[in-house]
Amino acid sequence: MKENCIDDHLFIRYRQLLDEEDLAFSEMEHDFEEGNGQKFKHHHEAWIKAVEARLAYLGECGVLATVAGA
C-alpha cells in the first residue's frame, strides 16, 4: 500500500476510471433497452471489470481499506 498518495495524480486517475466505468454502464444500459442480450453480457463484464479496477486502485492508494467481492 502506498502512503500519502492523495494528490492530483490520484484524482486524475480516479476520474479516468470513473469515466471508463460510466462508458461501460452506458453501453450496457443501451444494450438492455435494445434487448441485445449478447452485447449486454459483454458490456456487463466490461462494467464489472471497470468497477473492480476503480476499487482496486483506491485500495492500492490506501483510500479504501477493503474491496468487497474482489
Q: Explain this structure to me?
A:
It is a single chain. With 70 residues, the protein is an all-alpha fold. It has one domain. It is 73% helix and 0% strand. The two termini are 17 Å apart. 6% of the residues are buried.
Can you write the helix and strand succession as a string? HH
Number of helix segments? Answer: 2
Q: What is the overall silhouette?
A: elongated
- The counted number of beta strands is 0
- N-to-C CA distance: 17 Å
Report the biggest beta sheet as strand number plus sense, adding barrel if it closes. Answer: none
β-sheet strand percentage: under 5%
Q: What count of structural domains?
A: 1
The percentage helix is: over 70%
Structural class by SSE content: mainly alpha
CA-atom Rg in angstroms: 14 Å
Short description:
This protein has one domain (8-60). The chain contains 2 helices and no strands. The protein has helices spanning 8-34, 37-60.
Q: Notable features of this structure?
A:
70 residues; 73% helix; mainly alpha; 2 helices
Topology:
Blueprint: H1 8-34, H2 37-60
Helix pairs in contact: 1-2
